[in-house]
């Protein structure tokens, strides 16, 4: 895979990326992806300090890379530049904390009631903002009090099982930190839907994908996490078992960023990437026939579906939309926004919160105008963020499918 | 017709001419430099950017080698802001003569050219794109020098020191009176004015035109012209100067200059000093040999080609056609001694790296004629501001990156080269009549990846807003045509895309055919 | 299964997708990025020379796309296009006898057949004197430059004026898109109009750079006219071109609403075929290649700039998806003429097609039964000198869809 910064010379300066960038549209603090990407890259010396901190406003939504007609890896150039800056200047404690999603999950789970209460208490949030810099309004999920894995022991396996039932596809469910520590219901629903579609679901050993570390430019940590994750999932990939999940951002990281952004290479990384799928990507391709054969119950309501930027970067289009449109009486409109603004941990930060909100405001506006009853989005951080700013419930599309499949 | 007189007339505003004029200023001599084009339009502005360590010539031209090694240190002292201290690597690729590196190493040691052998793995760590199969590699004190910056600093220093530099002034004839050159007839290309400039002594420092100028005094000088082409690649693939460790040949050097990597050169005999074309075989050759040093080169975008014409001394017995083999050392001809024509000294040859030394040597002859005894001070007098630190790659980006966000937009006009509007306006006012290509030489306008596709329009618009007299198209047509000329030899792949983008924007979106055509015809 | 797979999301590809989807086909568009509409004036150029195309079409060489398509098809395609844009509340106007004479940002005249209302109002057949307005701090439009040439051509330019834009980016340079987003907001429009009105007192007609909104541009334009009490017209300026982006957005939304699946960010790299039929196209997506199966494939990949044709230093010109034979000159030295303004041989390179838009092989027979090509990928036209790019795009897309759907 070609190194991203070497694609900078393919840039013709057409500015299509700048025109599509949701952060540049929201704030003049960000020069735009072309400016901080292929343009600035020509001035970055590998052995001299980086002079431009304005690249830190990039939220890594990836739209720029996707719309570039000349194969410039704009987003990856920006992400790598941010990583160098952090390497040179260091990362604040806050960033180290919030990027360690596994640790936050593990520490908070036994203290769930207290943790959940505190995170909703104004004075506590105010102190958090003043001390470590997490904005007091940033939405935070509620701890479930136990781990999904502990609740679903019967699905957990140590190694790939014998696949002797040819009529059922074995699927390894990558639950990710959010389902494991917070959204058990979503995990249960996902397993139910996959089983209904004829799969045998297993929970392989796995760990945090490392995306939050990558997004916070802590590349050493991210690479370590990535290598651990790959090692755990490798036997399943080798056995040809698809690795499927609902946290579309995590799956994209495993499928793509491990190699393109973090620069990892080798048979193991490639094998795991080849077997990684977003859940709707998976069911609309590998389980197509069964899916097409289902009848859906009506769900009389209006919904706005925000196909999160990370889903689009899977480069599979928006496979969810036609499925949702098959559900009777469900009126779904597609969000026009490229990005909801939350961008993972970006919107949590005190100094970025307002910009993040600006980025998402066209989406929140569209939801209001459409009269949406609820929001649909693949990525959990998108759901939490959009729910907060629209005050609407936010569901993963598989949750909508589940309701229509009853 | 205006009459003026001076002590020293220097014809030619390249590094040599300006170097001589600066040296003269410091010795209190009144001097006028007359240059036919814009600053840097001649050979000095068409060079590959290499500040020689001397290592390249230790075997083929030891005199040059030593001079380069000494002047390398001097230039770092007097003009550090023009130099990026990249360091250099000499590498032997598979297939290069195996005995050469040791011979070369010995010669370096003998001539005091500092070099050091390192492990290929170390070189690859520093420059990951180099050919992984290099067999031997050495570090040297080569560096990258921006000749436009240098020419500007020299001009500024000369003018501040009381000298005059006349740009875009054409020499029409040398005034010879009784076997003595007493002056010159000059036409200003800015406004057509004719000037008679009388001088006690005239120096012919016109580089490849030296032969033609000498002929104006009825003198023949032994000069051969070797055209060398270079290709700039849009990405800076290496951050160290890279030379091939083998007998000097075509295409064996790569220099990171500013934001590009310059690959070169070739050496073809030409007759016309203005023959700066590049032929397809030269491009192919440069890219082919370049790929021997950087195997991934075909994946990268060649940005532009250009050529410079080297004036070379042609000893009687040498074959003028084989310009690659001619010595690079400089030649000073005192025509009073050699041809019986007083009042004229010619100097040509040499390298940009040794311009100061060439000037010092020329001044020995000049001072003898002018009866000046003041010593040479150029080795210890810094040019211009005498900035302490070397020029660095991130410098331009740092300058436009706001520390605290400003309250008004920076108005970056050329985004590729990060040129703010204020700089452009100042440069526009300094160039009359308007030639955006001259502005380009001052600022690097349009020298980036888009080759002026975007900034040409902006510059033309700003010209209309800033200048009272401006061509209808704001200088667009000529400027873009110049850009087109230099990218056409690379017209395939990604470069062809860029060219098509330029046509779409200017000929479809701006429907500019008639406008630009008119101006071009004028 | 997808009945029509369109490769390329420029004017040609999106228009074809809409036409096919509205006729009931299941359509998928795969594209490397977002197309070159962002570089264009956003108008429909059909034929700029005299005599008009209706008279000359029969004298065109029979390899010219217009000759292959026929005048009737062109009229039908243009009508379909106008219907689509009218439905999207972005109506296009034709000039008398199909020629609008529109001022450009350089003060030259752009001859076009159809233009959106806000641009068409700049038709120079209207002799009302006008003022050209530049926008403070906006570096991509220079009224003095344009006024100079327009005046010399005898057009009634009364002068220029500079208008400040409250709310425009301050901390970095703004692009036309930044200003357009500003105009999309009602409160901003109100504020701007209040500031501009007194500065335009005495003007009878005002020409501005095209920045009056991106999303609801017709309404925005009409509102601004009303608030200022003056006829206005827009002039497309340096890319990112807002009129081009408006059109791109409208076609993309129309396609999505018609059920077209659009997959962005995926370069098409190969194909699979069997005998005389293609089975589909292989694209590079995140982490792996994907095969998109389809009943028919339409190549709308563009020319060298669009990525449909690839040129190499040894004089070869390759069609990038199917490696179809390309009409071209094998001697690289003859591709490009020395002057930028000259006609350029390489611009005529492309695919030869039959009347059904099916690519022809070296022997003049169709290569595949279910493969089609349209737009700038086709050989035989000198689009820049003819002023025919968009006309060819629309009519060849139209003919291809007719051929696919019967």
**Tally of contiguous helical segments of chain B:** 16
* Tertiary shape of chain B: globular
What is the CA-based Rg of chain A, rounded?
Answer: 21 Å
Q: Which fold name is given in CATH as the topology of the domain at 292-405 in chain A?
A: Rossmann fold
Describe the sheet with the most strands of chain B: 9 strands, mixed
Give a description of the structure.
The complex is a heterotrimer of chains A (406), B (522) and C (406). In chain A, 50% of the residues lie in helices and 8% in strands. By secondary structure, chain A is α/β, with parallel strands linked by helices. Among the domains of chain A are: 86 residues, Alpha-helical ferredoxin (Fumarate Reductase Iron-sulfur Protein, Chain B, domain 2), CATH 1.10.1060; 114 residues, Rossmann fold (3-Layer(aba) Sandwich). Chain A is globular, with a radius of gyration of 21 Å. The two termini of chain B are 26 Å apart. In chain B, strands 5, 6, 7, 13, 14, 15, 16, 17 and 18 form a nine-stranded mixed sheet that branches. In chain B, α1 runs parallel beside α5, α1 crosses α9 and α11 crosses α12. The model of chain B has no long low-confidence stretch (mean pLDDT 91). Helix content of chain B is 34%, strand content 23%. Chain B is α+β, with helices and mostly antiparallel strands and 522 residues long. With 406 residues, chain C is an alpha/beta fold. At the A-B interface, α3 of A face α10 and α15 of B.
Task: Offer a concise description of the structure.
Chain A has helices spanning about 15-20, 20-25, 35-40, 65, 75-90, 95-100, 100-110, 110-120, 120-130, 150, 175-180, 185-195, 210-215, 220-240, 250-260, 265-275, 280-285, 290-295, 310, 320-325, 355-370, 380-390, 395-405; strands at about 170-175, 200, 245, 275-280, 300-305, 330-335, 375, 395.
